[in-house]
Design goal:
With about 210 residues, this protein is of the alpha+beta class. It is about 35% helix and about 30% strand.
């Protein structure tokens, strides 16, 4: 083989080797895969205002870190993303999703979130004696490795009332929380539609 042909062949092989090495090494330093998120159309329909979806953003907002129902399990976590949703009126929502290092860790986080939600009315009332909090467990949603929906109603001593629907779901190593809220009480909560939203949220994770 002529010298210039041999040199060209060696250069090509070296380049191919470097390319292959780069491809093989890439996953170790690659950014984590962002799970699928709800779209605005997936939220329970609002009677007089369309939903608007924000961007999927890494991390958790400060409001979640300070939240007495979710903050202890979701605040400051790695491999966590969120998306905010709003209407033109008083209704808003947020989805927070966390990718855990193992299925076992995800099971633990799922259980922790359920425990924290069940016990958060006590923490709310201890933190502010002017607020009365009540929780309803709306049961399971049969999707992937499971999900559960809760309703949380808070009322102040001066009469202001808020209702939240909170769901926790899991698919493999991924756990997601959907948090919907507006002014009102349990009678204003679209539980059936929110369960459908929860199922969509979990199904979109993979």
């Amino acid at each position: 083989m002529p010298k210039h042909t041999r040199a060209a062949a060696l250069t090509a092989l070296a380049t191919a080797g470097l390319t292959l090495a780069t491809v093989l090494a890439a996953p170790a330093g690659a950014a984590p895969r962002v799970p699928g998120f709800l779209a605005a159309k997936d939220l329970p329909p609002h009677p007089s205002s369309p939903w608007t979806a924000g961007r999927v953003t890494a991390g958790v907002p400060e409001e979640v870190e300070l939240d007495r129902c979710l903050g202890m399990a979701l605040g400051g976590g790695r491999d966590t993303w969120y998306r905010d949703f709003r209407t033109d009126l008083d209704t808003s929502a947020r989805q927070v999703t966390v990718e855990l290092p193992s299925v076992s860790a995800a099971k633990g986080r799922f259980s922790r979130l359920n425990r924290d939600i069940r016990s958060c009315p006590v923490r709310i009332e201890r933190a502010d004696p002017e607020i009365e909090a009540r929780l309803k467990d709306y049961g399971k949603v049969n999707v992937e490795e499971g999900a559960r929906v809760y309703g949380l109603h808070t009322e102040t001593s001066w009469g202001a009332t808020d209702i939240r629907l909170i769901s926790v779901g899991r698919d493999g190593r991924t756990v997601t929380v959907v948090d919907w809220g507006q002014l009102g009480d349990f009678g204003d909560a679209p539980v059936k539609a929110f369960k459908k939203t929860t199922a969509k949220a979990v199904n979109k994770l993979h």
